[in-house]
Design a protein that fits this description.
The chain is an alpha/beta fold. It contains 14 helices and 12 strands. Strand 2, helix 5 and strand 3 form a beta-alpha-beta unit. Bound molecules: pyridoxal-5'-phosphate. Pyridoxal-5'-phosphate binds at residues 101-103, 127, 129-130, 172, 176, 203, 205, 225, 227-228, 237, 239.
Length: 416
């Protein structure tokens, strides 16, 4: 009898090193070449006609058809390689789009699916740039955002159910900077029952792609600031969107071609080289952060540490256990002694550096109330837990004992 074995499927950390790149197309180079051309020579006039028909959506490519590249604002080889190689890192994804920043990725979602008169639901608090996009750019265009507090599952379901002309549910979880979690599966279940069939997009920058998998919770889009953990060295700006449905990615590619916000060749090449280590880096960063968070929780100068393993609210514990595999590299804490104590602490650090951004191999610490969250009204800010005594830490891959020693000496020296 002919008993055919199913094909062997490699795991994500292997796939990221083996798929999506053909050395023979880079003169045998073991790493992709960088293709900086702005325009591409067609193999024939017929092929040029065919490429335009496909790029403009008048025709669909046949499976395995080799479509000529046209012009680098539309796509280029390094973007195509990166988009192929990143797919296995996001469970459930079948296609990806790369952008020249996380904000470019987020903006492109709204400009692709929303028109004046449409609404979207979003969780608060949100990344400062997204907050600015919603209030200063989308709102004046007549695209109306409806906020819902992160972590309030019942209110989120009600808000989604009662929204009209609803196009998008945009979730950031865990929410920056006190890590409040939102139930992705509850949002997608509610969105599925809605007559407008809104897309559910999850900003997965904080825990993905290693520790949280939105597409497995039925979300339509997993969105990244690749500037953070994906790149990991605080030396490039980029964004990525992944989806189960390739036609959704094709639509985003179409908007991107006109906005001109594709990730450039050199940046694609750099980011591509970082993908095989993202899981290694994030595992080490999460282990470091957990040891530090749990130790600092007992420190006499700290009144509260925000970190997933220290959650007390039963709903937060439930969401964490349902959708996160590990607690991640971000923690924040409140100091006794308010803003003065927080500033003293930042000034006293000798290993960790005072900077915004996160996800790099080096440890960074900031004061959200006066920097990343300073655009919020005082009321919104305090309601979101961004007090004057709060500092946020992005833990790197240094030896955790050295970091803890640094934090302790900086705490001891407060007020001196
Ligand atoms: C940094 C960040 C963004 C924006 O990404 P850029 O690459 O800076 O444009 C969006 N969301 C979250 C959660 C972020 O941390």
């Amino acid at each position: 009898m002919d008993s055919k074995k199913p094909p062997y499927v490699v795991r994500p950390t292997t796939a990221v090193l083996t798929r999506g790149f053909d050395p023979s197309l880079s003169v045998g180079s073991a790493r992709p070449a960088v293709f900086r051309s702005s325009t591409y020579v067609f193999s024939s006039p017929e092929s040029a006609e065919r490429s335009f028909a496909i790029a403009l959506g008048r025709a669909q490519p046949r499976p395995d058809e080799n479509v000529d590249l046209i012009y680098a604002r539309i796509s280029h080889p390094n973007a195509e390689i990166l988009e192929d190689q990143i797919v296995p890192l996001e469970p459930g994804a079948r296609d990806a789009a790369v952008f020249n920043s996380g904000m470019a990725a987020i903006s492109t979602i709204f400009f692709t699916v929303c028109r004046p008169g449409n609404t979207f639901v979003y969780t608060t608090p949100l990344y400062g740039g997204t907050y600015h996009l919603i209030h200063q750019i989308l709102e004046p265009f007549g695209i109306h955002g409806i906020p819902v507090r992160a972590g309030d599952t019942g209110m989120m379901r009600k808000t989604i159910a009662s929204a009209r002309n609803l196009r998008v549910v945009f979730i950031e979880t865990p929410a920056n900077p006190i890590l409040t979690m939102t139930d992705i599966a509850a949002a997608t279940a509610e969105a599925k029952q809605h007559p407008d069939s809104p897309l559910v997009a999850v900003d997965n920058t904080f825990l993905g792609p290693t520790f949280q998998h939105p597409l497995e919770c039925d979300a339509d889009l997993a969105v990244y600031s690749a500037t953070k953990f994906l790149s990991g060295f605080s030396d490039l700006i980029g964004g990525v969107i992944l989806a189960r449905d390739p036609s959704l990615i094709a639509e985003l590619h179409g908007t991107r071609a006109i906005l001109g916000n594709i990730l450039q060749a050199d940046e694609c090449w750099l980011l591509d080289g970082r993908l095989p280590t993202v899981t290694l880096r994030m595992n080490r960063q999460s282990k470091n952060a957990q040891r530090i968070a749990e130790d600092l929780a007992r420190h006499e100068k700290i009144s509260k540490v925000h970190y997933p393993t220290l959650f007390e609210d039963p709903e937060q514990v439930r969401i964490r256990d349902a959708q996160c595999r590990f607690p991640g590299a971000i923690l924040s804490f409140e100091l006794k002694g308010g803003k003065r104590a927080a500033f003293d602490f930042l000034r006293n650090l000798q290993i960790a550096r005072c900077a915004v951004s996160l996800g790099g191999v080096e440890t960074l610490v900031c004061h959200p109330a006066t920097t990343t969250h300073s655009e919020m009204s005082e009321e919104d800010r305090l309601n979101s837990g961004v007090t004057d005594s709060l500092v946020r830490v992005s833990v790197g891959i240094e030896d955790w004992r050295d970091l803890l020693h640094d934090f302790r000496q900086a705490l001891d020296a407060i007020g001196e």
